[in-house]
Amino acid sequence: MLIDKYLCGETNAVSLLHQLAQILQFHLEMKETVTTGNIQGLYFAFCVVVDGVEYKTGMGITKKEARLKAAELALQDLLPTLESLKSVLPGASDVPPPLPVKEEPISEVHPCRSIHERMNSANFQFPHAVRDQLTKLMNSNPEFSVCAGTTAAFIIQTSGGCEVVALGTGNFNTKESASMSGRIVHDSHAVVTARRSLMRFLYRHLLMFFSKTANLTEKSIFQQNSSSGLLSLKSGITLHLYVNQLPKGAAQIPSKLRLNPLSISAWQVNNEISLHLSVEGKVFSVFSSAFEHSASKVVSMSTTDKITQWQVLGYQGALLSHFIEPIYVQSIFIGDSGCSDIRGMEISVSQRVEGITSQLPMFYCMMRPHINLVPSVATNSADGGQVTYGINWSEGDSSLEVVDGLEGRTVEESPFKSGSALASRLCKAAMLHRFKLVAKEAQRQDLLATSSYREAKRMAKPYQEAKNVLRAYLLQQGFGSWLVKLSVSDNFSM
After folding, report:
1. 245 — phi, psi (to 5°)?
2. How much is the pTM?
3. Is the predicted pLDDT of residue 462 greater than 80, yes or no?
4. Residue 473: C-alpha distances to residues 129, 141, 470 (Å)
């Protein structure tokens, strides 16, 4: 098989992609891009574009080397899907497959006209995995089943199938003012909670990788990348996001709006697709006069804007970027039964940051996710008794944690509690603790010497550069200014 020959090193990545493009009838482009950042010497950069979707940038001292690296990076993301297509791929040969005769239906000759159409099976596979995991958690803790109204989950896909590795529910910001100790969770919306649970999963696998036990290192999802000095996901592992509600913010724009409107005012479009702020469960455009900022209220960027940011900076955040390359979501599955149009999500997450990749530091890019409507796995409950509560869980946890979104702390009746202070395992202080554990295992004395959470984040220079580029780009494109958090809230130490 073609894939087997590639995995055995008998054919290279560029050759395999071109053969697959002909067999599976997808549009393939090797696009030259620009390198930025602190790169010594002359490097060329290319990225693979499949049916309009850009994959990670590959670099090399020659164009041939850069194209090969880009093809290898693209295949890392495509291999899980390609594995499921082996039955329809011909055996490898020196000649291209025969062209179909006109009379044959194209669906029979090319059962995979587009590689991305083959992801349709995932439209059911992933929601089912989320439903099964949620059901398992709720069966063990039925008193918190009402918390599952707004659910988000991250799914890891490999050639062996898919697995839910992080899950969160919730719909609130805390009413508390900014915490100076890092022990309050300020944003408890489902996607944010699931993402912080994903970070716990990543920390766990970093500890496995850096352990002295070969068996644990082998089980880790990470591998050493010789070109960057950082770790990356093992070949064939991809990350996906499921949400059961269309995220708050610009994703919820009316379907009639476009980036280049003909029948509506530019002002209305700007308000709809601009950056949005979330405060006390309500969402406002950054241009809205209805929003009045108060020092006593915790304000955060909308969930849609955070997803937009993560698709550029990666879901790992600043601290983890000391150890790993950016980790992006390949697909976003929206299981909102009341949603029939994902155009707003596509505009918000992809089109608003189109063209930013060439300005970003090495290893960062705008990763355009596949966005699909899928069956819902949870519905909003009419019972409002515990709607301020949210749950979090990641693979490896023996029990779930329940956090009161308004208080930003674990509730007394939570199955998991970290201590009498009821600080959540998702709070910044808990993340800093895990960061120090990994830094110790990785023998990173420079990171162990950091005096505060804020300093550890600032030391992640490429990440901070990418963040600054993103925010300047959004402002320049007319989408508004990103909320600047009080730096004092990150100025705590262990």
Report:
1. -140, 140
2. 0.76
3. yes
4. 37, 45, 5
